[in-house]
Design brief:
By secondary structure, this protein is an alpha/beta fold. It has one domain: Rossmann fold, CATH 3.40.50.150. It is built from 7 helices and 9 strands. Helix 3 links the parallel strand 1 and strand 2. Helix 1 packs parallel to helix 4. The chain starts with 15 loop residues before the first helix and ends with a strand.
């Protein structure tokens, strides 16, 4: 039986204006204080993803990576610190791209960043596609159901048979993500995250799923 899930209520976090305004402020803050800004979901989640990548032999140091909704670009900087070299960050906010470029250039990292909207698709394939929060933001947009479907199809089109799609979400559980992606993807692995217990039930605040294309 198909599991039907309600859409999330639209939020300002699902709007282009919100993210442009946010990253314009973060550019000013970086120029004034050298603060690169927030690491979404925290250092622990980033460390868990990095550990998984480093112990996955199919993913080599020169494998092609794209970070969807790269924000300030700090995840790709962490990848570069681990020796990965073929790195691209994309964001639909031009201000986010400007910030990530400033940080990478001033710190001497050879990372590419460009403005691109995943809902419009990217005409490239990648070994690793990474999303930490972008699908969540799309889920908070107007017309979220249609936008989520565009996202799913476009990510699928960016993958070859040996590609990996890593998604981190705080809005959707592992089971819900599997339901959303089941027509185009199969679950490959779940990266464990901290769990909590409440009322006799156990759950996670954040879900990290690795998918392969069908």
């Amino acid at each position: 039986m198909e599991c039907k899930m309600e859409e999330l209520e639209p939020s300002e976090l699902g709007t282009h204006d919100y993210w442009n305004d946010r990253y314009e402020k973060e550019i000013s803050n970086y120029l004034a204080h050298g603060d690169a800004g927030e690491i979404w979901f925290g250092d622990d989640i980033v460390d868990r993803i990095l550990r998984w990548l480093c112990k996955t032999p199919e993913i080599e140091k020169d494998s092609s990576f794209v970070d969807l909704g790269c924000g300030n670009g700090m995840f790709l900087i962490e990848l570069s610190n681990e020796g990965y070299t073929n790195l691209l960050g994309v964001d639909y906010s031009q201000k986010a791209v400007e910030l990530s470029r400033k940080i990478a250039n001033e710190k001497g990292y050879n990372i590419s960043y460009k403005r691109a909207d995943i809902l419009e698709g990217l005409k490239c394939t990648f070994k690793v596609i990474h999303d930490k929060g972008t699908y969540d933001a799309i889920s908070l947009s107007e017309n979220a159901r249609d936008n989520r479907q565009k996202y799913i199809v476009n990510v699928h089109n960016m993958m070859s048979e040996d590609s990996f799609f890593i998604i981190t979400s705080c809005n959707w559980t592992q089971v819900e993500l599997m339901e959303h992606f089941k027509e185009h993807f199969q679950m490959y692995q779940v990266i464990p995250t901290p769990t909590f217990k409440f009322g006799g039930k156990e759950g996670s605040v954040v879900s990290i799923c690795v998918f392969k294309k069908l």
